[in-house]
């Protein structure tokens, strides 16, 4: 049986997990910047903070992008569906709450007239598909 972490070790590990400027987010930001797109970061819009603090805000286009980790946001891919064995009930509840919170924030943004795109960590593997998805989202005329 694998060695178990002490609560202090687990707490230290969890404190090192970032919510902003993650590697997946930086990859998407570099790709878009190289294509000439400019954006604001982490929910900053001219009128204040946006619900959910989107990773990238394109205020002039009224569009936002979230870059989500598959495990943390309970994506339906293989990584997102991995269920931790230790403290399984806690993790299931936590990830379900995150999924519900994400859906509520998306509804708030859409109700306020923003278009929302979620990029999942697993989608970063195919850079050409990712690039075309991002460009298509950003170049499509906003809904009226």
TrEMBL record:
Q: What class of enzyme is it?
A: hydrolase
Which Pfam family, any one of them, does this sequence belong to?
Answer: Vsr
The EC designation for this entry is 3.1.-.-
NCBIfam families registered for this protein in UniProt = vsr (TIGR00632)
Q: Any idea which GO molecular function terms this record carries?
A: endonuclease activity; hydrolase activity
* Family the UniProt entry places it in: Belongs to the vsr family.
Extract the Gene3D superfamilies matched here.
VSR Endonuclease
Q: InterPro entries from the xrefs?
A: DNA_mismatch_endonuc_vsr, Restrct_endonuc-II-like
Q: Could you tell me the Gene Ontology terms of the biological process aspect for this record?
A: mismatch repair
Its keywords, alphabetically, are: DNA damage, DNA repair, Endonuclease, Hydrolase, Nuclease
Keyword Hydrolase, does the record have it?
Answer: yes
User: What is the annotated role of this protein in its UniProt record?
Assistant: May nick specific sequences that contain T:G mispairs resulting from m5C-deamination.
Protein's recorded name: Very short patch repair endonuclease
List the source organism: Pseudarthrobacter chlorophenolicus (strain ATCC 700700 / DSM 12829 / CIP 107037 / JCM 12360 / KCTC 9906 / NCIMB 13794 / A6)
